[in-house]
Design a protein that fits this description.
The complex is a heterotrimer of chains A (94), B (236) and C (126).
Chain A: H1 2-23, H2 27-47, H3 51-75, E1 84-87, E2 90-93
Chain B: H1 2-21, H2 36-46, H3 53-61, H4 63-83, H5 102-124, H6 133-150, H7 158-181, H8 205-227
Helix pairs in contact in B: 3-4, 4-8, 5-6, 6-8, 7-8
Chain C: H1 7-31, H2 35-54, H3 83-113
Helix pairs in contact in C: 1-2, 2-3
Classes of the chains: A mainly alpha (94), B mainly alpha (236), C mainly alpha (126).
C-alpha cells in the first residue's frame, strides 16, 4: 500500500520535472531538472525488478549527461533567448 | 498557426500510441507453453552455468549486438575528438584560474582510489551479481571526472588511454575468433564451464566483460578530457 | 514487494507516464528555438522510450532474473523477462553517445556563427 503511494508520487514528480525542464528559460535549471528525471527513473527501474538497468541509468544519466550539458552551456549562452538585439546604433527590445 | 498544427500532430501520435498499448495487458503471463523467456532462463542456468541471466544474454546469446554497440561507442568518441580538437597547453592562455576549494581537493584525493576499486569490482563480478562491463566502465570514468574537476591542471596521458582501449577491443575480437579456430561458431564458448555461482564459471564470459569494462572506462575518460579542454569563449 | 492486486492502477501509471514523457519531449524538439533546448527534449524522449520498453516485460509477483544462492534450489519461482533488460542496456549507452556528439556539434556551430538560435543560422557550412 505504501509502495503504491510512493509510485504515484514518483510518477507525478517525473511529469512535473519534464514540464519544468522545457518551460524554464535559464538553461542551467533545465539541465538540473533533466538529471532529476534520470534519478527518479532509476528508482522506477528498481521497482520493476531490473537491477542491471537501474545501475546503468544511475551512472550514465545522472553523472555523465549532466556534466556534458554543463560543459556545453559554459561554452555557449546561458539564457534561452536574447533580451536585446543591436541594429546599428539603436537597441531594440525583443 | 504553426503551434496548432504541431499540437494536432502530437495528439494523433498520442492517440495511436495509447490505442496500441491498451491492448497489451500489464504484468500478465501472455504465452502458454514454451516461450522465449523460459528458454533463455533454462539455458542460462543449465547449459552455461551463469547466475546472471541478463549477462548471458548480452554476452553470449546476443553477443554480436554487443560488438556492434562497442563499435558505435568508439565511433562516437572518435567523431567528437575530431570535431573539438585543441591541445590543453595552449587552450587557456591568458585566463586566470581559481582552484577548487580545500574540501573538494582533499575529498577527490581520498575518494579516487575507492571509486576505481568499486568500478573494477563491478565489472569483474558481472556474471554473479547485478553489474557488468558497461556499469563498471562508467564508474571508472566518474572517478577520473572527480579528479579532473578538482585540479585544473590534471593531466591524463592520451597515449596510454589509446593503447588500453585498442588492446581491450582486440581481446574481445580474438576471444570470438578463438571459437572459429576450434571448429565452432563465432563468439561461441570454448573454455570449460565451471560450477554455478563460482568466480571461474561461464567460460569466456568473464574475459569478454573485463575487456568491455576497460574499453568503456578508457573511452569515456578520453571523451570527458577532450570536452574539458575547450577554451571559454570571451563575449565581446 | 507484492503488487499483484493493484494491476489496473499500475497499468495506467507506467504506460501513461512513459507516453507522457515521449509527447513532452517531442513537443520541445519541434517548437523550441534554442538548440540546447532541442537536445534536452531529445534526451527526455530517450528516457520515456526506455521506460516503455522495460515495463512490457514485467510479470506480477516476479523477481529479478538472477540465480542467487537463495533462489536456485526452490521450485516454481516466477522470474521477470530478461530479454527487454538486455535491449534497454544497449539503448541507454547509445542514447548517451548520440547526445554527446550532438552537443559537440553545437559547440562548433557557436564558434562560427556566434548564436545558437536556429532562425539565425542560414548558411549550410559548418
Amino acid at each position: 500500500m505504501i509502495l503504491l503511494i510512493a509510485i504515484i508520487i514518483m510518477a507525478i514528480i517525473l511529469l512535473a520535472a519534464a514540464i519544468y525542464a522545457i518551460i524554464q528559460k535559464d538553461l542551467l535549471y533545465a539541465v538540473i531538472a533533466t538529471s532529476v528525471i534520470s534519478l527518479i527513473l532509476s528508482i522506477m527501474y528498481y521497482v520493476l525488478q531490473a537491477p542491471d538497468v537501474a545501475l546503468t541509468e544511475a551512472a550514465i544519466g545522472v553523472a555523465l549527461t549532466t556534466i556534458v550539458f554543463i560543459i556545453t552551456i559554459r561554452n555557449t549562452e546561458r539564457y534561452e533567448g536574447k533580451k536585446y538585439i543591436k541594429v546599428g546604433k539603436k537597441i531594440i527590445k525583443k | 498557426m504553426k503551434k496548432v498544427i504541431i499540437l494536432t500532430l502530437l495528439a494523433i501520435v498520442g492517440y495511436y500510441l495509447i490505442d496500441v498499448f491498451a491492448q497489451i495487458p500489464f504484468g500478465v503471463n501472455r504465452y502458454e507453453g514454451q516461450n522465449v523467456r523460459d528458454f533463455y532462463l533454462e539455458k542460462s542456468k543449465d547449459d552455461l552455468h551463469v547466475s546472471n541471466a541478463v549477462t548471458s544474454i548480452v554476452v553470449n546469446f546476443r553477443g554480436f549486438d554487443t560488438l556492434g554497440e562497442v563499435t558505435v561507442l568508439f565511433l562516437a568518441v572518435t567523431a567528437l575528438g575530431s570535431i573539438l580538437y585543441r591541445r590543453r597547453e595552449d587552450a587557456h592562455k591568458g585566463v586566470v584560474f581559481f582552484s577548487a576549494s580545500k574540501i573538494v581537493r582533499s575529498g577527490a584525493h581520498l575518494l579516487f582510489a575507492p571509486i576505481l576499486l568499486l568500478g573494477a569490482y563491478v565489472f569483474i563480478h558481472g556474471h554473479l551479481s547485478p553489474g557488468g562491463g558497461f556499469q563498471g566502465g562508467t564508474i571508472i570514468a566518474t572517478g577520473f571526472l572527480l579528479m579532473l574537476l578538482a585540479y585544473h591542471d590534471y593531466r591524463v596521458s592520451h597515449e596510454i588511454l589509446s593503447v588500453v582501449e585498442s588492446l581491450a577491443g582486440l581481446t574481445f575480437v580474438f576471444a570470438g575468433l578463438g571459437g572459429l579456430l576450434l571448429g565452432k561458431a563465432f563468439l561461441e564458448n570454448f573454455l570449460p564451464i565451471g560450477t554455478i555461482n563460482f568466480l571461474f564459471s561461464g567460460g569466456i564470459i568473464p574475459i569478454i566483460y573485463i575487456a568491455v569494462g576497460f574499453k568503456v572506462g578508457a573511452e569515456l575518460t578520453g571523451l570527458l578530457y577532450t570536452m574539458l579542454n575547450e577554451k571559454e569563449y570571451k563575449k565581446s | 514487494m507484492d503488487l499483484t492486486q493493484y494491476n489496473d492502477i499500475l497499468t495506467i501509471i507506467f504506460y501513461g507516464t512513459s507516453i507522457g514523457l515521449i509527447l513532452i519531449g517531442l513537443y520541445a524538439a519541434l517548437v523550441k528555438r534554442s538548440l540546447i533546448k532541442i537536445m534536452i527534449g531529445l534526451s527526455i524522449v530517450d528516457s520515456g522510450v526506455n521506460l516503455l520498453l522495460l515495463s512490457i516485460g514485467y510479470l506480477a509477483g516476479g523477481t529479478a532474473p538472477i540465480f542467487s544462492p537463495a533462489v536456485i534450489d526452490k521450485q516454481n519461482v516466477i522470474m521477470v523477462d530478461p530479454v527487454p533488460q538486455a535491449l534497454v542496456l544497449t539503448a541507454i549507452v547509445i542514447g548517451f553517445a548520440v547526445t554527446g556528439v550532438g552537443l559537440a556539434l553545437i559547440i562548433r556551430l557557436y564558434r562560427h556563427h556566434k548564436t545558437v538560435n536556429i532562425d539565425e543560422i542560414k548558411n549550410l557550412k559548418w
